[in-house]
Specification:
Two copies of one chain form a homodimer.
Chain A: E1 8-13, H1 20-30, E2 34-37, E3 40-41, E4 56-57, H2 60-68, E5 72-78, E6 81-86, H3 90-95, E7 99-103, H4 106-115, E8 120-125, H5 129-138, H6 144-158, E9 166-169, H7 173-187, H8 195-202
Parallel strand pairs in A: 1-7, 1-8, 2-7, 3-4, 8-9
Antiparallel strand pairs in A: 3-6, 5-6
Helix pairs in contact in A: 1-7, 5-6
Chain lengths: 206, 206
């Protein structure tokens, strides 16, 4: 029996502090055919962020060169900065049957849904706004004004959570990781990705 | 955070010998909030079948009394016998947030889909017709004519597999059980079952 022909594209969104990078870090250890596409941004790197894990941090001129060269799949401008998804390897990964995860904010997610209607969208939900604020406080670099601003953004993002296919609650990390893993495993079995298996069985000799 | 309000209704179909009862037996050990609804039939019990596990075996008059009393959710007639789903506890289980599994053939599955449009449908696929035939042979009670007849039915059922939401391949039992488990776990996180969680977070104090 052949494996699924085409890979699975998963869009992951969630407010800053919801735990996207932590959950993805755990998942990458488990799945050997998982690729995480990291976004590009022109905003400044925060102290706790790592180049290539949280974002690729590029200069404005460099970002615009990439747009002109057709290397950006979709982008938005927010707060005076560009945020974009590099075209790079996504289609090649999908053609090789990989599971590709795009970590992306709600507006970018809507763009991706328009380009890849078969994608699966997941929203990572913090258990409460209070817990979210605490998580942001714990990142030492944040000042109170910045946290208040991020909480405003979080509220706006949460208002779009109902547009996603799945809501993963990140109350306890290990549960959230298992829940996300189950979604990937289940979606690989969707009938739209397995029609060839039915054909193979029907055409097999009995 | 409250658990999901309403339970999940899962319809499981698959040809005779695809391993439905074995997979369900394993799953019941793992989930403590899983309820399996067993169908009623008027056909004779086969030697390897158990009352209440594979079917409830009832007389024709008894089945018709139950239809008249409104105790049958849906039924079909096949080969001169009735096959039906007892109304019994399904709605009560769902209201209590349970995951309810209906093991049912393809025609009954279509009836259930019409009654419960939010149900999740899973087709258990044998790896090949040859393996299916071997599994039927291994059940000692089967004679060759009966197996040939069941293989014909299997081919007709397989032609409906593409109408289901998920295709679980039962090549190795432990994989099939894990795959089915992932579908249940993922479907519990569907946005249609978790809107209340988004509201709760948005209404929480920050």
């Amino acid at each position: 029996m052949r494996k699924n022909k085409r890979g699975l594209l998963v869009v992951l969104s969630g407010p800053s502090g919801s735990g996207k990078d932590t959950v993805l870090g755990e998942l990458k250890e488990e799945f050997d055919d998982l690729e995480v596409s990291v976004s590009l941004t022109t905003r400044r790197k925060r102290a706790w962020e790592h180049e290539g894990t949280h974002y690729y941090f590029v200069a404005r001129a460099q970002f615009e060169e990439k747009i002109a060269a057709g290397e950006i799949l979709e982008y938005t401008q927010y707060n005076g900065n560009y945020y974009g998804t590099p075209k790079s390897a996504i289609d090649a990964w999908l053609a090789r049957g990989k599971t590709v995860i795009l970590k992306i904010e709600v507006e970018g997610a809507a763009n991706i849904r328009a380009i890849y209607p078969e994608c699966v969208t997941v929203f990572l939900l913090p258990p409460s706004l209070e817990v979210l604020a605490q998580r942001l406080f714990r990142r030492e670099s944040e000042d109170a004004a910045e946290i208040a601003r991020r909480m405003d953004i979080a509220r706006r993002e949460l208002a779009h959570a109902a547009d996603y296919d799945y809501i993963v609650l990140n109350d306890q990390l290990d549960y959230a990781v298992s829940d996300f893993r189950a979604i990937i495993r289940a979606e690989r079995q969707r009938v739209c990705r397995r029609r060839h298996m039915i054909e193979e069985v029907l055409n097999s000799a009995s």
